[in-house]
TrEMBL record:
Organism: Aporhodopirellula aestuarii
Keywords on record: ATP-binding, Disulfide bond, Kinase, Nucleotide-binding, Rhamnose metabolism, Transferase
Domain of life: Bacteria
InterPro entries from the UniProt entry: ATPase_NBD, FGGY_C, FGGY_N, Rhamnulokinase
Family statement: Belongs to the FGGY kinase family.
Designated name of the protein: Rhamnulokinase
Membrane listed as a keyword: no
Alphabetical list of Pfam families matching this protein: FGGY_C, FGGY_N
Start and end residues of each Carbohydrate kinase FGGY C-terminal domain: 266-456
Length: 498
């Protein structure tokens, strides 16, 4: 890499990576330095993140990056920034210690907490304050779970840090909450960008846990001495990217405009989750939005990500995990190939069925779901794989209709970014089911968005439009044209009945 190097630590729910990025010759060049698995850990009844293991992988990756850049005469490391999934958090006490484990949003302790919350504050009021999709995983309900459980972290914390903020704190010693991740809590107003005092008060959450959110692109501090000794990152700035991975992914969608009022494109950030939506200049905290249960999350430079959280390739991942337990270990490519050969529409799965959020065994759960919905129980793996992918494409079709209603605009192009953009069958199914052109890529959208925001923060790039220009010049995309979309009509009707 030539020129100043920005290190993106990008943590997804299924894997993490340290990626080095630099702007060189009118393009963004990336080098993947370290990639590692990320998996929650079950301990007794709890589901926890292995934050120590993640920190170890992060520092290992940073050390490798420092060594590689040191060995090259071309660049030097200017900054580092972390993005992660939303909603999860850790507690820090007055002795600067992380107290209590970091829980995974699929932790069973959260079950039923949304109903408890709605007994204290009405759904209408929570939506009016936050404009967010109601999901049991939201920070609001997780905090309520911690409060009700008498959680030691909850009782002794002086700060609450979202997952990416937690790693920024480990890197720099600074406690901040970055705005895009703060917007996933369901405690922040998308209109003012401030915390909802009404909700903090109603739920008795300590207001000092909620400082003014830091904007993406802000320099938080420097890599602290102890970490610099470990990693070699002496004098390197810590710059907050859009720390919510989805916000970073949306930043690097290869579109030509930024936050149009009437978008003719939408995105699907496709990984463990599928986040399908549009980027708008303003939030839409409307009755229709509440009815359709869409979310107004915060995007970069004051934009809104109006989107739907859809249970994404999680099902595909968990089918593979279940097969691994049974002794077989197909690759993604093998799973896609088997799905391609399976009979179409023989099993319709709603990826948002609550029973699929955290089942003990995904294959057993899908078989029992098939029984409960009067469908044939899948007898071969290809049918399972295909059902998971068709279910997503059908969900996208419904979501697209809702998006067009919400924005009163007609969407022509669907950009798919993230790991799912490598799944050619899913991309083609999406084009067919939605009857729209799909543009797939870049795969590493999140890391690219992370690097781009660090470039903006350090003054090397000046706008999102400029960043997207670079993305288009730097990373190839693949276009899928819609084929026979009529064959999706009948399955779409069956899906709607589910
Ligand atoms: P997350 O950030 O949520 O961990 P990613 O964006 O890394 O997710 O996407 C991971 C998913 O991408 C995998 O679960 C898999 O379904 C899909 N994927 C990755 N590589 C391939 C591939 N070569 N072919 C098909 N699908 C792939
Ligand atoms: C995607 C994601 C999504 C949700 C979920 C918890 O990785 O960040 O936007 O917030 O994870």
């Amino acid at each position: 890499l030539k020129g100043p190097v920005h290190l993106a630590v990008d943590l997804g729910a299924s894997s993490g990576r340290v990626i080095a990025g630099a702007a060189d010759g009118g393009k963004i060049q990336l080098a993947e330095v370290w990639r590692f698995e990320n998996k929650p850990v079950r301990m007794q009844a709890d589901l926890l993140w292995n934050h120590l293991g993640l920190w170890q992988d992060i520092t290992h990756g940073l050390r490798l990056a420092a060594d590689q850049v040191d060995a090259s005469p071309l660049g030097e490391i200017a900054s580092v920034g972390v993005d992660t999934w939303g909603v999860d958090f850790g507690f820090i006490d007055d002795k600067n210690q992380l107290i209590s484990p970091v829980r995974c949003y699929r932790d069973p302790r959260n079950l039923g907490r949304m109903q408890d919350a709605l007994k204290r504050v009405s759904r209408e009021e929570i939506f009016a304050e936050t404009g967010l999709q109601f999901m049991e995983i939201n920070t609001l309900y997780q905090l309520l779970a911690a409060q009700q459980a008498g959680d030691v972290g909850y009782q002794h914390a002086t700060s609450l840090l979202m997952m990416a903020d937690l790693f920024h704190w480990m890197l720099s010693g600074e406690r901040t909450i970055e705005a895009t991740n703060a917007s996933t809590t369901q405690l922040l107003s998308p209109v003012t960008g401030k915390w909802s005092e009404k909700l903090l008060g109603a739920f008795d959450f300590p207001s000092h846990w909620f400082p003014t959110p830091t904007q993406a692109g802000t320099t938080i501090g420097e890599v602290q001495c102890s970490v610099a000794t470990m990693t070699g990152l002496h004098g390197v700035s810590v710059i907050a990217p859009a720390t919510h991975d989805t916000a970073s992914a949306v930043l690097s969608v290869p579109a030509e405009e930024f936050a149009p009022a009437k978008p003719d494109w939408c995105y699907i950030s496709s990984g463990t989750w599928s986040l399908m939506g549009v980027e708008l200049p303003e939030p839409k905290v409307t009755k229709l939005c509440a009815e359709l249960n869409f979310t107004n999350e915060g995007g970069v430079h004051g934009s809104t990500r109006l989107l739907k959280n859809i249970g994404g390739l999680w099902i595909f991942q968990q089918i593979r995990a279940a097969l691994q337990r049974r002794g077989s270990a197909p690759s993604w490519a093998e799973m896609v190939e088997a799905a391609e050969q399976a009979e179409p529409f023989s099993l319709i799965i709603n990826p948002d069925d609550p029973s699929l959020l955290a089942p003990a065994d995904m294959i057993d759960e899908i078989c029992s779901l098939a029984g409960r919905t009067n469908q044939r129980v899948p007898m071969d793996d290809g049918v399972l794989f295909r059902g998971a992918l068709e279910g997503l494409a059908l969900r996208y079709r419904l979501t697209l209709e809702s998006l067009e209603r919400l924005t009163e605009s007609s969407i022509k192009t669907i950009h798919i970014v993230g790991g799912g953009s490598l799944n050619a069958l899913l991309c083609q199914m999406t084009a067919d089911a939605c009857n729209r052109t799909v543009v797939a890529g870049p795969v590493e959208a999140t890391a690219i968005g992370n690097v781009a925001m660090q470039m903006i923060g350090s003054g090397r790039l000046h706008s999102i439009v400029e960043a997207r220009d670079l993305v288009r010049k730097s990373f190839p995309t693949k276009t899928y044209s819609p084929g026979n979309s009529r064959v999706w009509d009948e399955p779409a009707a069956r899906f709607a009945e589910l």
